[in-house]
Write a structure and sequence with these properties.
By secondary structure, the chain is an alpha+beta fold. Helix content is 18%, strand content 37%. It has a 4-stranded antiparallel beta sheet with strand order 1-2-3-4, covered by helices on one side. Strand 2 and strand 3 form a beta hairpin. The protein is globular, with a radius of gyration of 14 Å. The protein starts with 21 loop residues before the first helix and ends with a strand. The relative contact order is 0.17.
Length: 132
């Protein structure tokens, strides 16, 4: 996998360059202001196989002890379907999304409602419900 440069398009499909979008969160120079921003940055981290960022943004009470990404998984597209709460002045929120992937010859869609909380001024992923 080729690492993205700052001027590349962001994998979260926001339309912004990676360095101005999720790249700044991955580099640690900014924090997500909303649950949706954190969701997008986590999707981009999966697309980049950045297990360290994924672990860092998972709430410590819910995070697995270790996390490995699958190098055979190719994340193709992210669609944000809805959000509840999760704004700059909220302490909790959900993001419903569909993430399209390819793994070898298999193609699929992960449809999930993810839960997020703000703790100590930072947004964290808590868990999610995978939908059919």
């Amino acid at each position: 996998m080729t690492k993205l440069a700052g001027q590349d398009n962001c994998p979260c499909l926001s339309g912004d360059q990676y360095g101005e979008c999720c790249g700044r969160f991955h580099a640690g120079t900014a924090k997500a202001a909303t649950a949706e921003q954190l969701m997008r940055s986590r999707y981009s981290a999966f697309a980049q196989s950045d297990a360290g960022y994924l672990q860092h943004t998972w709430h410590p009470d819910k995070a697995p002890a270790t996390l490995e990404t699958d190098p055979g998984m190719v994340w193709r597209r992210l669609d944000i379907l809805s959000t509840t709460g999760g704004g700059p002045f909220d302490n909790a929120g959900t993001v419903e999304f569909k993430a399209y992937y390819r793994h070898g010859t298999e193609r699929g869609i992960l449809h999930e409602v993810s839960r997020f909380v703000r703790d100590g001024g930072r947004w964290y992923y808590v868990d999610g419900d995978v939908l059919a």
